[in-house]
Amino acid sequence: CALPISIVNHAETEGDSLNRFKTHPYGAERILDLTREDIIEKKGRVRDYKADFLIYSVVNRAAEQITPITKTYGARLRYLQDDLDRGFVNPEHVKEVAEIRHELQELQQWVSQMKSLLRHLQGDSEASKDRWRFGAWAASKGRGLTVFLRDTADCLEQASDRMAVLDELAREYADGHERHRDAAVNRTLFCLTVATCIFMPAQFLVGVYGMNFVRDDGSPGIPELRLGDHGYLLFWSLAGGLVVLGTCGAYVAGK
User: Between vectors from CA 44 to CA 41 and to CA 46, what angle results, nearest 5°?
Assistant: First the structure.
């Protein structure tokens, strides 16, 4: 978004690194080059309206840079939304969408400044014939630039509407990602809960048969522990049966 924003000085201090006019001059240079090409190729009314139309041409060229930017943002947001709809969740995409929203807010601020500038120019262009009018020829002759200024103002208004829609799409993507993340956490908790329920009977058996109760003669106090060589096999058979039974129960409940 540095192309249009670099045209406007945000009243930042001279040493501020966020001054895009100084840190990102490419956008301003590009727009001035396009305006110079219009003068050389005699496009528009630059030579008729002299310096006034030259000022308007710079402003209009700057406003035209918003359209490709909003189209690029729109294409990228649609691509990310399609990935999210397919179940592809990437935390980096959330960070990217947050940056897009921030840049859209900067663009909205720039558009508001441009609208204010156009309102002032339009007011000067519609001034009475008794005083100087923006866009009039020498000696206040000729017509103002009201028609041209209104066209640029309409372009900015449409761009503002598009950016509002893009900001809404970015917000919906963030909300959708949050829902996918919550669903993933819920699925993980569900699996852990099912696994705990399946192995809980076996854990109970381990706790019971792990108690070292003995009789006065030193023999185990639990009858199953006095089965000799068959006690160990009996324990695993019982524990394995409970695990299998719990797995089948969880499968049936899941269906």
Answer: 85
- Global confidence as pTM: 0.61
Give residues with Cβ within 8 angstroms of 143, minimum separation 6.
135, 136
Intra-chain end-to-end CA distance of the chain, in Å: 51
For the segment 195-206, what is each residue's pLDDT rounded down to a tens digit?
A: 888 888 888 877
Rounded to whole angstroms, the Cα distance separating 45 from 163 reads 30
Query: Model confidence over 136-195: pLDDT tens digits?
Result: 655 545 556 777 888 888 989 999 999 999 999 999 888 888 888 888 888 888 888 888
User: b/e map of 79-105 (b: 16 or more CB within 10 Å)?
Assistant: ebbeebeeeeeeeebbebbeebbebbe
CA dist 132 to 57, 104, 116, 129, Å?
Answer: 20, 37, 20, 7
Q: What's the rounded Cα separation, in Å, for the pair 119 and 53?
A: 16
pLDDT tens digits for range 73-107: 999 999 988 888 887 878 888 888 989 988 888 88
Residue 22: φ, ψ to 5°: -95, -40
Report how far residue 111's alpha carbon sits from residue 166's, in angstroms, rounded to the nearest whole number: 15
Q: How far apart are CA 50 and CA 104, in angstroms?
A: 34
Instruction: Give residue 140's identity as a one-letter amino acid code.
Output: S
